[in-house]
Amino acid sequence: MVPSDRENAPVRVAIIDDQAMVRQGFGALLDAQPDLTVVGSGSDGSEAVELVRRSRPDVILMDIRMPQMNGLDATRAVLSMPGLDHPRVIMLTTFDADEYVFSALQAGASGFLLKDATAEDLIAAVRVVAAGNALLAPSITSKLIADYVARPAPRDTSALLSPLTERELGVMKLVAVGKSNSEIAEHLFLSEQTVKTHVSRVLGKLGLRDRTQVVIAAYESGLVGVGR
């Protein structure tokens, strides 16, 4: 979530991309929104790290493929910086099957967006991620995530997921296959607020940042898998 002391302030956005036209175009578009403000931009990952220290953005639009420090390394660096409210990272890519996308999700990014997304999709993406939700471009499905994370041997499910109750495991499964809170509530005959509580408990018990990492953890642990 956006830190509480900024709840009523515009979402602070940083744009990191080695193409000046992308930075300028996205910046102008986002700055025109009353609830968003661009606090800085940079052309590679090292500039992203410095910008986070200096400007404390809430959301970073981060290109994956950049010279010097790429977006994946920058995401790892930014999300491991001590003593900060870590920003949420949206990875930008021109490739809807880019293998770095999946590594970025595992590194802690909140999702990604294709660079040819519409203006409306870009604005919505920043708002969605700032609110603490995960973001996946429509052309990327949970099966593609599963295909990637299934390459290594799954972890010991009982050890990884042992802190969770049966109900929390059930909610986690439904999150992993792309169900929204309202859809989970309808499926399990629960209120939407109760579902939100269960999702928050899953995040807290497993030390996960958002729903994207819930999806990754569910596949890595073997709780769900390709074809299930």
From TrEMBL:
The keyword Transcription regulation applies. The modification 4-aspartylphosphate is found at D63. The keyword DNA-binding applies. Transmembrane segments: none annotated. InterPro entries: CheY-like_superfamily, NreC/VraR/RcsB-like_REC, Sig_transdc_resp-reg_C-effctor, Sig_transdc_resp-reg_receiver, Tscrpt_reg_LuxR_C, WalR-like. Residues 157-222 form the HTH luxR-type domain. This is Response regulator transcription factor. It comes from Leucobacter manosquensis.
